[in-house]
Every structure is written in structure tokens, then in C-alpha cells.
Amino acid sequence: xxxxxxxxxxxxxxxxxxxxxxxxxxxxxxxxxxxxxxxxxxxxxxxxxxxxxxxxxxxxxxxxxxxxxxxxxxxxxxxxxxxxxxxxxxxxxxxxxxxxxxxxxxxxxxxxxxxxxxxxxxxxxxxxxxxxxxxxxxxxxxxxxxxxxxxxxxxxxxxxxxxxxxxxxxxxxxxxxxxxxxxxxxxxxxxxxxxxxxxxxxxxxxxxxxxxxxxxxxxxxxxxxxxxxxxxxxxxxxxxxxxxxxxxxxxxxxxxxxxxxxxxxxxxxxxxxxxxxxxxxxxxxxxxxxxxxxxxxxxxxxxxxxxxxxxxxxxxxxxxxxxxxxxxxxxxxxxxxxxxxxxxxxxxxxxxxxxxxxxxxxxxxxxxxxxxxxxxxxxxxxxxxxxxxxxxxxxxxxxxxxxxxxxxxxxxxxxxxxxxxxxxxxxxxxxxxxxxxxxxxxxxxxxxxxxxxxxxxxxxxxxxxxxxxxxxxxxxxxxxxxxxxxxxxxxxxxxxxxxxxxxxxxxxxxxxxxxxxxxxxxxxxxxxxxxxxxxxxxxxxxxx
Length: 544
Known about the structure:
By secondary structure, the protein is mainly α. The chain contains 28 helices and two strands. It has helices at about 15-30, 35-50, 55-60, 65-70, 90-95, 100-115, 125-140, 140-145, 150-155, 160-175, 180-190, 200-210, 225-235, 245-255, 260-275, 280-290, 295-300, 305-315, 315-325, 335-345, 350-360, 365-375, 380-395, 410-420, 420-435, 465-485, 505-510, 520-535; strands spanning about 440, 445-450.
């Protein structure tokens, strides 16, 4: 099997690693049985490096028969697929031992090759392999939906993400029909929490929709109405976009509708949005189109309560500017945040409207602009992405996610400020996005995120919402510095302590001698949030 080359003819990283794997497999197959253990280490290391690369799972699947026949599984239970138990696949993949993880992952890819008819195994049929993998997916749905938690990252390192990529590949390979009921239930469970970040769920719904359109696939009755509601919430929500025509064609159809037709479209999108928590890109286009019409249709498109309608009428200018700046098909999800923001009555808080006007005219620092562009792309602009993120966070304060980062205290602080003190949150966003620095006061002394020695996170986060992406690195460094200043005090951990496990925070610094216990960090974060808000003047670091 010859590695492929890129457009310029130079082998890619995956090509080079696949070439090393082929050499290792060839050496293993040419070795007598008594000498195979000495060659096995090279094969396992090559497999691990290949699996970590994009496209690595497909490369290993293509070599499943060669790996099996070379003796990779000799002397283990994996050598006999017929005796394998689906319930043990998950623990094997979550194992701290990297060799066990690699062998389990390779075994699943071997079964995928068998299920798809690429490898005719003498003792295991394609139907048996398909059923086995379906059970494995159904028993480990969290690996399809959730990023690695802190315990997994600490235990498995980079291999924690390798498992997620493997499960996505397995699900795409065998299809979702066999686990559709479980998948739909899990999607609804996640959506009931109303998270800000729904990209993973949207991606899964899109893949299921494409798979469902295959006439050869029989979904049976397992999906029920729940799947239809999920798919239509993104595609074909209303009559004007039933056939998923694309944004330009949808815009032309809107221009041909009368007021009653537009009202029908607006109410249809609003019902789907509040039902699922998902927003169709067509909904964003409709809202932008309705800005030139009356406020009643805008309120209908957002599905506002009486409080929300009052907010919209009173602060229509700032709402219109927020929609013009932030609402695009690429940022459609912020429409739900805008609806909840208005329904919460946040704009009635005196400082919030001026703070939003300031946000709309904010000039981003080069660092903030580069970070937003690197994660979300340059269409729409980084400024629009950040405003959309602000809208979502103010509207869904309990939907803030931690992502694949050990920064739970920062996520909780952002959630609390968005819920209780939106003015202060907006000030923090300005400092982080404009000045690339946040200053807080701790025990009467200013703490600068620029001067901190570093935070808990070892690398900049990339899987966060726009506000968290800009603010969390600064908060992480500040909270870590607070932890370092308290680390040598009575009642706190000193040996091997980290900011996320140090006791008390500002309360311990003020004389508390309580010992650390699970959950103390939330108390510390709350105290940090309230005390820094009370002691940080509005004019600090540039003020408003």
C-alpha cells in the first residue's frame, strides 16, 4: 500500500506515518512466532501515531486484515472476535494503558472492515461485526457527544480525543440506524440543557439527515417524531425553506411573500427554535429581512413574551443594531440568545444598553482578532462573532460550556456574571478584547492577567464560545495567581496543589482556615467574582 502525496507531490504527515506502519507490519509478519513480541512495540507505536492523525482511522481500517494476519492480536482475547463482549470495549478504550487503548481501537476498526465486507474473517461474519459495533456505540454515546473531561485528560492525555474521533468514524461507517433511538434521546438530553455551543449536535443531526435520505436505509419506527423535529429545526423549518433551497433562493421567496405569509414564516421559526433550542440559518436570514418591516413581525420571529416585546419596543434601536451586526446565517444560534436576552429583561438594567453600544463600536486588539479568526474564520467578521457571543451569553447564562479545558472556575464565573451582573461581564469583555488584559483586585492589590506566571490551562483553548475564547485565558491566569498567593497558608493544599484544587481563595486569604473539600472551588470562584466586582472600579484599565 503506497502512501499518497499532497497537491505539491510531498508526502503528508499521515503518509509518512502510514509508511512507517506498513514497514512495522511487514517486519512483524515476516517474524516467526517466538520473535513477534520483540516486533510488537514498533507496530503499536506506529498505530498510535497514525490514529492521532486526521484520516488515520481510515488508514488503519484499510490495513485491518494485514494487521490481523501479521499477528498483532496473537495471545490476546482480541485474536478471537467471536468471544469479545461489547460492554468491555468502552473500558478498554478508556484505559490508562496506551497499548490497551490502541489494541482496542484497532480491533474496532478491524470489525468495521469486516462489517463493510472489506475483510472476510473466517470466524466472524459481517452481520455479527455490525451488531457488535452497534452495541458498542449504544453503550458509549457520551464518546459521540461530549468532549473529554478533566479526569480523562489527566489520565489519557491526547488519547482522550483519539477515542472521540474513532467513535465518530465508527458511527459514520456503520450508520446511525442501529442506534438511532439512543442517539435521538441523547441529543434531546443535551438540548434540554440549552447549551450555547451546539455545533457538535448540529453536525450529528446533519449527518443523520444525510444518512436518512438514502433510500436503501430503513430507519423503521425507532426514530419517531423526535428526529423529524430535530432535522426540521435546521432544514425545512417552514414552507418557504421546506426543500432546503439555500439562502439566496430563500431570500427571493421572502421578498414575494405578503404580511400574512411573513407572519406564518416568523411564527414557524420561533416555535421550532423554542422547542429545540436550535436555530436554522434560514431563521437568521428571515430576521435580517424583517428589520425593514414592522417590529411586530420581529417579535413574532423571536417568539417573545410580553416582557420581551416591551424590551424590544423600548430599546428597538440597539436591538436592530445587534441584529445587523451579529445575526448572520453563520451565527444563527445567537438568535435564540437574543430572544432569551429580551425575555429576561436584561436591557432594563441601566448600564447594559450603553455597554452594548460600546461593544458594537469596540475595536479589537490584534490578538483577539487573530484568535477569533483562527477558530471561527473571517466570515462574518471577528467583531460580529464576538457580539454574537455576547448576545448568546447574556441570553443563556446557564449554557456556558467549559470545553476541553481545565478551566471550570472561569466558566462558572462567566455564567454567574452573565446571570447576575451583565454590566461587569461586558466590561471584562472590553478589557480582554481591546486591551488584551484584565485587571482584578485581590486583598487590595491589583492582579493583571499579563503579569501572571500562567494558568491551569497549558495551551490556549479553542473549543469555546467567542466570549469564553477571549476572556477565559485572562481569568484562568488571574485565578491561578490568586491560588499561588494563598497556597502556603493554613488550611490550603501546598504539595502539588493547583489553582483548581486550592482551598478557600479570597476567603482563605481573609483569615478563613477551612480545609479544602470537593466543591470549595465554586465557593472561591463566587467569592472572587463578588469581591472583585465590589473592589474593581469601573474606570480601571481604561474604564468605559
